[in-house]
Amino acid sequence: MANIIDYLNWRGDIPFSQVPLNEIDSLILSRISYFPFDNLFQGEEQITIENAYKRFKKEKDKIVLQIDDLDLFPMVAKCARYKDLILLDYINKIELKEQKQFSAITICLPNNILYVSFRGTDNTLIGWKEDFNMSFSSHVPSQKDSRVYLDNIASKYKGDIIVGGHSKGGNLAVYSSAFCNSETKKRIKVIYNEDGPGFDEDIIQTTEYQEIIKKVHTYIPQSSIIGRLLNHQETYTVVQSTANGIMQHDLYSWQVLGSKFVSMKNVTDKSLLVDKTIKEWVKTVPAGQREQVVEALFEIINSTEATTLEELSNKKIATARILIKNYQNIDNENKILISRALHSLLGIIKENIMTNISNKNSKKSKKIKSSKLEIKI
């Protein structure tokens, strides 16, 4: 089994000038936006990946969002294929008031090809809150920022544009490409969505979305959950992952063979079940009520004073006590909303599981009857 680290060991010595960007390169470039660049740039300077890593090595606290990045960062900084690529216009904004977590970077490839890489959800609770907001809001703050960022890059630099991102970054890649200005849109050659959630019907039905959908290449693991959320209209490639369940969202678990993903024909039954359940739940619970439920849940979570998922999970027992206590303290109206929402979700899950079992039994029965028929004949 091989992943993007193995790919770099195999292909890292061949520059883009000799072999153009492929789907595995795009996955790596989408991960680069997660790297800790915050203290590595002086103003609006442009530096190579190699120089960015040299600066990172001098940092006292080498904090990364995922431990595997500590392997990937030095590899892309040393291999001939990546080390001389230029990093442009890094931005990282976390704004509590607007409930926004937005980060992006642009990577300049040979022949002035611009890869605009949008970061997905990081470990901040406000980032996850914004993801939940997508279930009831058509245009969340980070989506609006992604459009502005893409138009800004197009106005500052010449060349063809490729847009990509993993997780929420994939959603931002599609959104920004759909709603950027017409001149920017003409320069976009392809959009890579790596297991990113979809959109509500308001966006899916817009002309802007329909105009770019043919340029979108979406990749999801076989048991995808995140990448199946909300609505999609594009076709997708199912990628084999070595992880289980929701952990397949981790792009380091995605399997590659040469310059291609190891693909599968279909997603698993579990992925289909989750997809169907969430879509039906969204239809069942009105947008206004979903918003109230999300606000109530995060009000309880915020009572712990944690700002990241790590802080929330470090003291599990103490956190659980605070969460229970503050759930008890919220008003009855919010308790009823949360209870109804969960009851609705559990009801749909139960119904879909029973339907799934019934369909499987029906198929088995048909096979048995068919087999008996063939014997008689």
Topology of this protein?
Elements lengths: L3 H8 L11 H10 L14 E2 H9 L11 H10 L7 E10 L4 E10 L3 E6 L6 H9 L7 H16 L4 E6 L1 H12 L2 H6 E7 L6 H4 L2 H6 L3 E6 L14 E4 L16 E2 L2 E2 L1 E2 L4 H16 L2 H16 L6 H6 L1 H14 L2 H45 L1
Parallel strand pairs: 4-5, 5-6, 6-7, 7-8
Antiparallel strand pairs: 1-2, 2-3, 3-4, 8-11, 9-10
Features:
globular; single chain; alpha/beta; 15 helices; 377 residues; two-stranded antiparallel ribbon; 9-stranded mixed beta sheet; 11 strands
Sum this structure up briefly.
The protein has 377 residues and is α/β, with parallel strands linked by helices.
Give a written overview of the molecule:
- This protein is 50% helix and 15% strand.
- It is built from 15 helices and eleven strands.
- The longest helix has 45 residues, at 332-376.
- It starts with a helix and ends with a helix.
- Mean pLDDT is 81; it is low at 366-377.
Give the overall shape: globular
Distance between the termini: 47 Å
The percent of residues in helical segments reads: 40-55%
Number of helices: 15
The SS-based structural class is alpha/beta
Write the element-wise H/E pattern from the N-terminal end onward: HHEHHEEEHHEHHEHHEEEEEHHHHH
**Stretches with pLDDT under 50, minimum 5 residues:** 366-377
What is the strand content?
15-25%
Strands, count? 11
Query: On the 0-100 scale, what is the average pLDDT?
Result: 81
